[in-house]
Write a structure and sequence with these properties.
Layout: H1 2-13, E1 28-34, H2 41-58, H3 68-80, E2 82-88, H4 91-99, E3 105-109, H5 110-119, E4 124-140, H6 144-159, H7 162-170, E5 192-197, E6 206-207, E7 213-214, H8 215-228, E8 231-236, H9 242-247, E9 253-259, H10 276-279, E10 287-289, E11 294-303
Parallel strand pairs: 1-2, 1-3, 5-8, 5-9
Antiparallel strand pairs: 3-11, 4-9, 4-10, 4-11, 6-7
Length: about 300
């Protein structure tokens, strides 16, 4: 189990070197990803460039570990290739950059990657990395009471299996998701919670062709509103505007801040003490997170 956790963590550090495993990739690989709000593109790039030294330290004393040879080969590839990252504020703009050959590859959660491939057969999987990740709701830091209410309902939905049922129905494997519109109950004289959706992580965060929020996230927030007896108002924004929507008061809740809560790292990695912590951070000042409500195992790298 410890070896498995170690390999998962090392793969996390190598998530942006996947292109190097494909045949004849250039020494400088240009990759795209949806913006991480907890760091700038420049700081993110510096962290990527610093990973070589970090991984040398992380690998000390693992020569006898199972699969160590495979990990060392990945480190060799990382040293021979430089990944240049570009942040995008929406999935649409990232796909347009891919189509215009401004990036060599893009990274997405597996279900989103399979959704993209279903809708555009020219995309193909370049590489898949086991990288456990999770997403949570974001709130303003003065909304602890609302965050705590959400946490209570999220835990109850985990316990009674509702989250898993909604995941199976609205996400599936990403290619067989259900896009049906989701209804909301109305509670006269009750509080209204403004929830921002992006549509930039389909089928998890999905907006249909007619502009209506649908899919898994919408089904989850509908159930939360019902259990809290609160009205829900849906607001559409781009993923890069998530923090601004909260801090400006335009939204009370925002979908899918990425988080590592629940993901275990071995002592060798010491994530909290090195620049990798910036890479996996997706929270800005003034924002607090709920408990995670959805997680995935793999990140998929796509190319054309």
């Amino acid at each position: 189990m410890r070896t498995r956790k170690f390999l998962c963590a090392v793969l996390l550090l190598l998530m942006f070197t996947a292109g190097a495993f494909a045949a004849n990739k250039p020494a400088e690989v240009h990759g795209g990803m949806l913006r991480y709000l907890g760091t700038t593109e420049e700081a993110f790039q510096k962290s990527i460039d610093d990973l070589n030294g970090i991984m040398r330290v992380s690998m000390m004393g693992v020569g006898s570990r199972k699969h160590a040879a495979e990990v060392l080969e990945m480190l060799k590839v990382f040293r021979e290739n430089r990944y240049v990252v570009t942040f995008f504020d929406s999935l649409t703009s990232m796909l347009m950059a891919m189509n215009a050959n401004r990036v060599d590859e893009i990274s997405l959660p597996e279900s989103t990657a399979r959704y993209v491939m279903k809708n555009d057969s020219e995309y193909k999987i370049l590489f898949t990395l086991r990288m456990p990740s999770a997403i949570a709701f974001g709130f303003r830091n003065d909304s602890t009471a609302l965050r705590d209410e959400f946490n209570t309902v999220i835990e109850s939905m985990k316990f009674d299996g509702t989250l898993k049922e909604l995941e199976a129905k609205y996400i599936g494997n990403g290619a067989n998701f259900q896009s049906n519109a989701v209804g909301f109950e109305n509670f006269p004289d009750a509080d209204t919670v403004k929830v921002a959706v992006t549509g930039d992580m389909p089928p998890v965060d999905y907006v249909s062709e007619n502009g209506s929020a649908a899919g898994y996230n919408t089904a989850v927030i509908s159930e939360i509103g019902k259990r809290l007896k609160k009205n829900v108002e849906i607001i559409s924004i781009e993923s890069g505007a998530r923090s601004a929507a909260l801090t400006s008061g335009r939204a009370d809740v925002i979908f899918w801040y990425r988080t590592t809560e629940g993901v275990e790292f071995p002592e060798e990695i010491k994530v909290e003490d090195n620049p990798v912590n910036k890479i996996i951070s997706d929270v800005t000042e003034g924002v607090i997170l709920s408990k995670p409500y959805y997680s995935w195992e793999n990140v998929v790298f796509l190319t054309k």
